[in-house]
Queue: 3 jobs
Job 1
Amino acid sequence: MQAWLHDLWLPFSAAAAKAHKSMTIWFNAIAGAAVVALPLAQEQLPQLQDYLPAGLYHYLMGTVVAGNIILRFKTRSALAAK
């Protein structure tokens, strides 16, 4: 690997090795899965339409934004330092 590419890769590699310890990573992974699964669930289970609000995606995205803001204030150390 070229030296400049190796220098770019090292910080990412150190952070990625400890990503499973990050609440922000877990929160975003679960939220991302929910965003993908929700339309599939609505298509496969049409009876859910009566129970889910019309603006569900807006609420879900608002929750993701709020969760990321809260977790950002909670974060005190870099991912590589965990």
Job 2
Amino acid sequence: MWIRVAVFLWVLVIAGYYAWRADHLILMPKITLRFENRMPFKQPSPMEGIVGVKMFFRVFPDCSSPVPNCTGHLLAVYREIDGHWKPTLFNEAVLLTWADGRVGPITIEPRIGPYLNVFCTDSDEKEIMRCLAHPMLRTSAMFRKRSEEKHMTFRFDIQVTNGAPISLKVRMDDRPPYWDRPLIEVLPYDENSSN
């Protein structure tokens, strides 16, 4: 009798472990975003010579096994004012574009990607432009530098489905040619750092 009870309890423990493990694996982030501070991707316009060159700044989604149904999101943009991050009009999550032009969802493969476009700069406009799937008109003037400003510093909070968010600090300086050489660093993501 006690052997049956022991076997029953053992089977119950094993079944409980596998039920917990399945739920636990679903909740674990499967993707890590990585920013490589190297020469950004230059993409000439189809009308090069008439229209300027765009420089794309991207993050790479690392994973150990294929992750299906992934979308990239820009969670929010903050502006640094007097050493503090202040919220901007860009305060809701929107879809970003992948380097190959798709919006998502896609399957991310280990060591293959594709890269996720975060923002780009343009030789004609000389300002930061978001790489959004659907433009937000209310934020269109947010990245334009006023003539009296020596530099602008923004924080982009980015996340890919099944991954932990990261933050990129982007500083655009007044030195020529500032449009294609922003200073970028990865910051620890802190959803409460906007105060």
Job 3
Amino acid sequence: MMFLLLRSLPISAALGILFLSRWQFVAWRTFPLLYAASAGIFIASAALIGYKRLAWREWIKVIPPILTFLIAGGAALLVESGIQQTLFSLFVSGLAYLTLELLYLLGLEPAKYPVHGLSRLNLALIPLGMFFLAMTLSGLQAFIRFPFWTSPFFGLAYGAITFACTAHHTSDKEQDRRWVMMGLLVGAHAGIFAMLLPLDVVASGVVSALLFALPFRARRYAHDPKPPRKSAYIESSLFAACFFAVILFSRWA
């Protein structure tokens, strides 16, 4: 009975989150109660699946998906059209499903667990989480006058937490400390750019996401098997092109 409950929990929780997040846009006056309830379902399901089955090092890998889920709730305030609302609901429910499914495989069927599954998921989610965070801060700045330090502070906090949760499995303590310092530096720059650059909310989020994606991709070249040098030149050129294209061709706020 417990096995069936845990096996069906990822899809059941995802469907519940899909319903609640979609209903949140209908009953918008209740915000953020319904989204908080969906976050509670996500966290409780993760705790139920991993309880007494995962080591603390594995639990750390669940922090970035939960953090991205919570930050996305703030970005929900900026979602307007019906298609955007549907896509948002599909995103948060899909995020919950992928995380819980990987957590289930890791805890109960490790033979089927993809190698570094949660770690690879985090590499995609962390820049996306910063996209939502920068977009939310930039969007709310038009309605609420935050203190000047708000964006850099949230960038610092997000960078420190996410980089601390994604230390490489072969690194030592000194390398882990340097990696967290890198997260603080990147987060501060992302927060400052979100505060100073007069970009619209989407462009501000894209710039911040690119800043967070760069160090994670660059770290790949420090560990074997290393990608060819040609790939580094191509990826660096694409990053620079995307970064300056967003700044130069986006509509300025």
